[in-house]
Amino acid sequence: MVNESAESGFTWEVRANSRHYHKPKQKKSFLCFRWGRSADNVVRSYKYTPLTFLPLTLFEQFQRAANVYYLLILVLQCVPAISSVPWYITIIPLISILSLRGLKDLSNDMARRRSDSEINSRPCDILISQSFQMKKWKDVCVGDVLRIHKDQVFPADLLLLCSSEPHSLCYVETADIDGETNLKYRQALSATHEDLTSNPSEEALSSFDGVVRCEEPNNRLYTFRGQLQWRGEGLLLDSEHILLRGTVLRNTTFAYGLAIYTGADTKILRNSGKVKLKRTQMEKVFNKVVMGIVLCVLLAALFLAIGSGVFSAQLMRQNSVLSALVFNSNAVYTGFLIYWSYIILLSPAMPIALYISFELVHTVHSLFIGWDLEMYWQQADKPAQARNTSLNEELGQVGYLLSDKTGTLTQNRLLVRQCCIAGEIYGDASVRAEDVEPMDLSWNPFSCGGLFMSAPALVDRLRGNQCPLSRQFLTALALCHTVMTEWKKQTPVYQAASPDEEALVGAARELGWVFLSRARDFIVVSELGVTRRYQLLALLDFTSQRRRMSVLVREPEGGIKLYCKGADIVILERLQKDSPHQERTERALELFAEACLRTLCVAVRSVPEASWEQWNKTLAQSATMVTCDRDALLEKLYDEMEMDLQLLGVTAIEDRLQDGVPETIALLQEAGIKVWVLTGDKKETAVNIGYSCKLLDPDSRIVEWDELRQILQSPDPRVSFFKPRQTELWAVDKEMAVAKTSVVLTGPELTEFDQRPEWGATFMSLAEHCQSVLCCRVTPAQKAEIVTLVRKHTSSVTMSIGDGANDVNMIKTAHVGVGLAGVEGGQAVQNADFALAQFRFLQRLLLVHGRWSYRRISLFLRYFLFKTCSFALVHLWFGFFNGFSAQSLYESWFIALYTVFYSAYPILCLAFFEQDVSAEKSLNFPELYKCGQRHELVSPLKLSLSLLHAVYASLVFAFIPLCVFDNTVFDYQTMAITVSMAVTFTAMIEIILLTRHWTKFNIAAVIVSVGLFFICTRITHNRFLFEQSPKEYIFLGASDYAFTDPVVWLTALLVAWTAVLPSVTAHALSVILNAHDKHKVHSVSHQSVELRSRFRRGTPLRRSSYAVSQGAGSGRHITSATHMRK
Amino acid sequence: MVKQESESANRPDNTAFTQQRLPAWQPILSAGIVIPGFVLIGLAFIGIGVALLVTSRSIQVLELDYTGDSNGSPCSSCSQSDIANCKCSLNFTLTTLFQGPVFFYYGLSNYFQNYRRYGASKDDNQLYGDLSSFTSPSSSCSPYNYDSSKKPIVPCGSIANSMFNDTFTLTRTVSGTTNNVTLDGKGIAWWTDYNIKYRNPSVTPLKNAFNGTVKPINWAKPAYELDASDRSNNGFVNQDFLVWMRRAALPNFRKLYRRIDASGDYQKGLPAGNYTIDITYNYPVRAFNGAKKIVFSNVSWMGGSNEFLGIAYLVIGSLCVVMSVVMLIVYAKFKFPDEE
């Protein structure tokens, strides 16, 4: 038996009701040792415990090369022989950065703990010793039998044993897993259903001793293979019997399930991907630069050390005053020590303050995001939130936006907005749904609102019995569907597998055709108060090939009618010849399509009794046939029946978009961002949404998989990709033509990419030229794979946005993940880097905050690089004039205070407040965003220019004072003060040049910095401090002389101006050239607008679709009557 | 009302700061500001440069090298031998009045007073008059903290040990008679050094404070006997000592030796005539290829002569003016591109 199960791959064994068997097998861990097999049901996303916090956080922090580097410097400074500057200069910033980071990590971890414990302590009923006890999620163990109430979330992956419903059917909502909001059916095995529901449930369940053997935990959401061994029988299990963690039980009072996978083993958690530490590209570039600087410092120190060795050797030979100072009278040893001294002296080139300031700037930018009123959603009282505070500048560089559909682009509300009956159009889609004047439907006792279509004329006609076609139209809507009813407070509540159907049946209800209830073979409808009972003869179900469904009913009067609804193409070709109103209806279809409404054609046919009998006979025969034959026959049969239809009308449904979605997408596309939609939903729906949110233009060419595969297989994919477009268009501009192409893929097709990895690069190079890419029916893991594909083959920054648990993986995978909090915060938000309440806030997040952040941080980094390198490299040149002795050119107090007190505030203010253009302008000129996508501000070239400028400035700092003070009476301390002054002045002039937006804080910061320089210098040269500790304040009195000497001032001024001369010139030249450039930008944008309008002239294609989840409809359940209540 | 408040509890504050709408000045630069700005700054620099150059040229400087490394120069015999207090003399003639006040400097070159370990080689506490540092000088003075018999050296360290010990007297020969030019050695050190930074221990007589210590190895006399003529000019507050202890910035430097006492014939400076400097040659510089010189100079508002500063200002100023011309050309090209 065991062997057999091993062969079939069923190595996971679950024994019902045997905790004693499963408990010891749970995974446990102590320190780094782990054992056990199955995970428990506790979510642990936190990292630290009180015991492990300190070692772990230190370990993490010292993984950063920079921190180790500073620690090394600190250690070096403590060695007296090489300490060129005192040790306290490094320890204070190092300790503060370590504790700041540690505290931040700790508070993040606390937040994670809180959210974990909230999830872990959700209630659920566990069967323990013959009775259900209210327990918490974390208590669930593999093999437990659970009772789930209506609207509860399943705490683990369960095997459905039975439910309160007939046939142990139960309905689940999988919105959190695949983004679909319609209900799905799950049915228990008949064996468990029969035996466990017949007896009082608790006893029967507690004596249930089945053993489930199934595959190991995996991330495949839609498959499950297993076997239930019970009472000597082996019953096969598949995904139909499984209730996944994260889904919600609907319309079912109770469901009983056996926990198979818990905690980390569940399919949804297996899909959620690993938490990755996200680092921005800019940080990576900058880290490289820092590494480069460190290498240069080491190299320069080596060079200086060699110089020192040579110099010492010379001293030894000369027997001068200094020769006694050569260490151990050994030139090589001296050089070795001097090497370390110079490393200390040059280390401020990569200052520790940079990392503190960098974090501070990020934090403030994140606060600004949270404070923005324009991104605050009044309705739910939700401000925007930056959960990850280190990715702000990436917001300004996004190249690809990968968006979820349901809940992100759409509100997931379907509204009937218009209809066309007998060629007459009712309702007006140009009015916003909220602004539609509600009709007076008080005559209808069943009306409960929800109709956003104002058509009093239709109501009059219906009630006045003027138009039989419109009555038939509504009868069709009330009959032809697979919706079920549930009675709540005297009104029917509809539950549908397709949200479209729910909307249509609801609309019929409002207009007086109320679908009351259905049984296996009849449907009860109240038509304007008259209750009529239709006999249901057959239900010709929906499939994605047929794209239509029909019902065959016998009217109370006795006639047989076929009501059919479906996509316009399939219905129109099945109409009887010379159908009236056809022309007008087709025009209506075009109108609806223009308004981005989803249309369905409704038609009717009277079936003669004889032909029905004949048909039914054939149908009955088919029941005994082999499956594949039967399907073909059914197809044929259905086709025969759905003939000679009489067109009744067209419905037009609006899939409500979130507010401002089309505008936002248009704006983002103008900003050069490629918007892709990744959805678990059907292709039809996705494409339709693509049109309605302006992602696809009506005249876009849509490339589907078959075509794409041919293109990818062709020797030159690019040529074959662009060719058809070029020939068929009268367009002159090739790029415009290409931009009109979109690719639509589905999940199963994407799996082919796994087998052909070489396609990835080709596909991406094509996709780069596409208007958009839509991926439908993709699993959460696939969504993440697509993100990875984009990340791998482009250098662009990717951003994912989504709202549900199915988006978690892609949110984690993308460079930047945005979670939509919407009405209620969800898992997506928990894992996102930024949380927004509305999709439209994205434009402000990217174009305003992102752009500003990118600019601010770029300027900040470049300035910091310049400031610190020029400051530290002076020693390199000064070394030549002090015998390579690692003599500092600054007072040690100046070194300690410079980066923090004298030069940090203005650049921080710049990094906080700088705005090159206002928020309004950023939104009005989305082209401005492109600068970030091209990494213009922090390119290797720009960074090297900054570095070059820094080297130049350091040369100026060293050599002008050297020449001025050579062969004069000026002492070392006066020169040190002069150079310090020059360095401070340079930093100030440079920041004044960079700042374009002078708030009071910027002005204050500059004044305070210069003021602090003089005040602190005076303080450290003060006699009182000297008297306390003569050793530390040896510059006593030096500033008294220096600050009154005109040569010192003139030298400092000259040095500062000479040092900034290149950047002043560059700024001046850019000012002069800019006037020219601005003109150019404007003329370009005008041209593109013109072109665009020319292209808009294509005729919109009609779109008609109607789709039920997973392709096939739910008619099977209705006709088999398994779902009916007794 | 209360309900509404609680409903929007998370509503961000609507302040200029949080909404990033702080009133701000956004200077808009244009070619009309930038180019004249450049010209103005350039002209200002040229102006300063000219002023500096003119001032610098007006300063009289007389430099006399007395290293004696070439045969035939006055001090060549002294520089060859190691005799202490070797005497030599330098003659020079002034044809015009050397405008006063005249300062008398000694200059050294190729002497790295800014060598780090040299600069650190002193004990600030000791020099501040801390007696505990007399008996146990700081290790930073090593190897000049203890002598061979383990007695503490006061003042310890390299700087003190290498104190400049040549002495000079200046005589003027007027019609056959030589008379001394009075040199004023008072107040040649910094006020802060003399009054705060360096202090003798408050022990009288001063000599007692130095009990149990030895003088620096290279010194001829202990610190408390540096100036035999003026008892207050001894110990750590000796002016020459203070001047020496203030480290030079660069390997070539000058230090103030004396001022020419502006009295009698010398009220207006050094009159024309023949002068002789008698040098007591002690300080060895030839070992490290150094040079020694005597410098007479008067001062202006900018201190001593400094040609470089003036020239640098002129160069940078001219560069700015040239740049503005270039910008003007560039601007004209873009402004009127059709005229090409």
From TrEMBL, chain A:
KW Zinc-finger (keyword) present: no
Similarity-based family: Belongs to the cation transport ATPase (P-type) (TC 3.A.3) family. Type IV subfamily.
EC number: 7.6.2.1
Protein species of origin: Astatotilapia calliptera
GO biological process: Golgi organization; phospholipid translocation
InterPro entries, per the entry: ATPase_P-typ_cyto_dom_N, ATPase_P-typ_P_site, ATPase_P-typ_TM_dom_sf, ATPase_P-typ_transduc_dom_A_sf, HAD-like_sf, HAD_sf, P-type_ATPase_IV, P-type_ATPase_N
Organism classification: Eukaryota, Metazoa, Chordata, Craniata, Vertebrata
Region ranges (Disordered): 1106-1126
Subcellular location: Membrane
Any one GO cellular component localisation term in the record: trans-Golgi network
Keyword Nucleotide-binding: yes
Chain intervals with Polar residues compositional bias: 1117-1126
Listed transmembrane segments: 68-100, 289-311, 331-356, 860-881, 893-913, 943-962, 974-994, 1001-1020, 1047-1073
Signal sequence annotation: none
Catalytic activity line of the entry: ATP + H2O + phospholipidSide 1 = ADP + phosphate + phospholipidSide 2
Main localization, broad class: membrane
Protein name per Swiss-Prot or TrEMBL: Phospholipid-transporting ATPase
Residues noted as binding ATP in the record, renumbered to the chain: 404-406, 501, 542, 565, 598, 679-681, 777, 783, 806-807
Lipid bilayer topology: Multi-pass membrane protein
Residue intervals of the P-type ATPase C-terminal domain: 829-1072
Domain of life per record: Eukaryota
From TrEMBL, chain B:
Entry's family note: Belongs to the CDC50/LEM3 family.
Cellular component annotations (GO), alphabetically ordered: endoplasmic reticulum; Golgi apparatus; plasma membrane
Biological-process GO terms, alphabetical: phospholipid translocation
Pfam families recorded: CDC50
Taxonomic superkingdom: Eukaryota
Subcellular location: Membrane
Chain ranges passing through the membrane: 28-54, 311-332
Protein keywords: Membrane, Transmembrane, Transmembrane helix
Listed name of the protein: Cell cycle control protein
